[in-house]
Each structure stands twice: as C-alpha cells, then as structure tokens.
Specification:
- The chain has nine helices and seven strands; from the N terminus they run βαβαβαβαβααβαααβ.
- The protein is α/β, with parallel strands linked by helices.
- Helix 1 packs parallel to helix 2, helix 1 packs across helix 9 and helix 3 runs parallel beside helix 4.
- The protein is globular, with a radius of gyration of 17 Å.
- The relative contact order is 0.14.
- Bound molecules: NADP nicotinamide-adenine-dinucleotide phosphate (NAP).
- NADP nicotinamide-adenine-dinucleotide phosphate binds next to helix 1, strand 2 and helix 7.
C-alpha cells in the first residue's frame, strides 16, 4: 500500500516545519514546500527521515499558479493526497493603509489568499469523492489579526486572513459531503521568524507582557492543533476556526 501524502506549503520553517515533522511518521509522506531557503527544507526532510517517515522538499511559490500545479504534480508521484496544510503566508513591514503600494497589496493577497484558494482547488480535485478521490483534510492558517485588524501595522495582512476565515467556512460547506473536512487555526503571536520578515524582529519580546498568558506561543503549540484537525480524531469537525492564541483576540 502506498503512503498517504500530505502537502505543507511553507513547510520548511516556523509553524509549517513543526507540522511537517509531526506529519512525517511511518506510512505518511510529507511534501515540504518552500520558496527560497532550500537548506531549511532539506533539514526538515532529514529530520523526518531520521524518525522513519518519508518526505520530499519541493520548491515553489504559492503566489504562482504554475508553481502550485508543479507542487501538486510532484506530490502525485508519491501516492494519493490525504491532506493539505495551507500554511505559507507573508507579512510586510508596518505601514498605514494610506502608505501602501499596489505592489505590496497584490503580493499579500496573491500569496495569502489566491495561493490558498489555488492550493485548496488542487487538493479538492484530488481528494473529493465527487472526483473519485478518497477524501481528506484541509487546514488553513488564519490569524488573530482578522479580528484585530492590525491597525498601523498590516491591515492588508489582517484582511487577507479574514478572507481565509470566510474561505474556510464556505469551502467546508461546499465539500462537506465529499469526504473532505476544511478547518482553520487562528494563531495569536507565535515565536517564529515571520516577525523579522515584517521588520519587527523583537516583536515577541516587546508584546509578550501584554498577552493574556504573558508569553507568545510556539510553533509546536500551533502545529499540535493543526495535527488534530488533520487527523481522524476530529472526524466530525469541519468549518471550525480554532483560536490558538493563548487567549488573545478570542472574542468576536
Ligand atoms: P515563517 O516562520 O515566516 O515561515 C514561513 C514559511 O513559508 C517558510 O517555510 C517560507 O519558506 C514559506 N514561504 C514564504 N513565502 C512563501 C511562498 N510565497 N510560497 C511558498 N512558501 C512560502 O512563518 P510562520 O510564522 O511559521 O507562519 C506560518 C503561517 O502562520 C502563515 O500563514 C502566517 O500568516 C500564519 N500566522 C503566523 C503567526 C505568527 O505569529 N508567527 C500568527 C498568525 C498566523 P522560505 O524560507 O523558503 O521563504
């Protein structure tokens, strides 16, 4: 019997790397997607192989439809797709909306929203029982920013994650009787390199005393929630958006 295949977009660092490691157990093949840092992706693949799982690193920008099609074709070579973690996402430097360029807005929405839609499309084509598939699970990475709006920082990013909230609910209902569950996790402030990429390398240290638990979350803490949503343990859960924020922004 061939392995169940899982695609983790942005699986080479941060939350995605933790998810990849946790999915990389015997009987499962993990497709570890990345854009630029091949060494980080190769290191995650090596860790998975050491623990007896199978993995392959596949370069590809989820902001490009051609790259997404190639990513899924690579995954097809390893067995039937059982799950997608729509994890790749980007922020930009802190700006007010009246300062944002169209290039910035297009980049944020193309990667965070269009990329997640296109990956979900390809996953549904393969996993839906309507298309002859065996069913599966999709988990999207939303953000507490969708409730907070992230003023004077990145309203564009927050709004892109609001789109992910809505996509999660709509797609979940669209494929609920086709064997596919679609859920999201909504992280708060998690200690990864994402903040440095948005020009705020000290963000965690600066804000942690203001967080309900007085600390940021870890990539592993978010990954554990994702793994539950990916697994049969959550077999009656679909369309759910799970706050993994240590109590931050839990009110509507
Ligand atoms: P991260 O540490 O910055 O890692 C990002 C990962 O995504 C890397 O593997 C990176 O690969 C990959 N990536 C970036 N752009 C990509 C693209 N265009 N196509 C494919 N892969 C791409 O991020 P993170 O903190 O783990 O965040 C993961 C997800 O959680 C994101 O969707 C983020 O919005 C969401 N989230 C994070 C936080 C937080 O506080 N960290 C909070 C809420 C939500 P390369 O290294 O090759 O570029």
């Amino acid at each position: 019997m061939s392995d169940s295949v899982f695609i983790v977009t942005g699986g080479s660092r941060g939350i995605g790397a933790s998810v990849s490691r946790k999915l990389g157990i015997p009987g499962q093949t993990v497709v570890v997607n990345y854009t630029a840092n091949k060494a980080a992706a190769d290191a995650v693949v090596a860790e998975i192989e050491q623990q007896g799982g199978k993995a392959v690193a596949v370069q590809g920008d989820v902001g490009s439809e051609a790259d997404i099609l190639r990513l899924f074709e690579e995954a097809d070579k390893h067995g039937g797709l059982a799950g997608l973690v729509n994890n790749a996402g980007v922020v930009d430097v802190s700006q007010r909306v009246d300062e944002m360029s169209v290039e910035r807005l297009n980049r944020i929405f193309t990667i965070n929203v269009v990329g997640s839609f296109l990956c979900a499309r390809e996953a549904v084509k393969r996993m839906s029982t309507k298309h002859g598939g065996q069913g599966g699970s999709i988990v999207n990475l939303a953000s507490a920013g969708s409730k907070l709006g992230s003023p004077a920082q990145y309203v564009d990013y927050a709004a892109s994650k609001g789109a992910i909230d809505t996509m999660t609910v709509g797609l979940a209902l669209e494929v609920a009787d086709e064997g596919i569950r679609v859920n999201a996790v909504r992280p708060g402030i998690i200690d990864t390199e994402l903040h440095a990429s948005g020009g705020l390398p000290d963000r965690v240290a600066q804000v942690q005393s203001k967080l309900p638990m007085k600390r940021a979350g870890t990539a592993d803490e978010v990954a554990d929630a994702i793994i539950w949503l990916m697994s049969d343990q959550s077999s009656y859960t679909t369309g759910a958006i799970l706050d993994v924020s240590g109590g931050r922004a839990i009110l509507p």
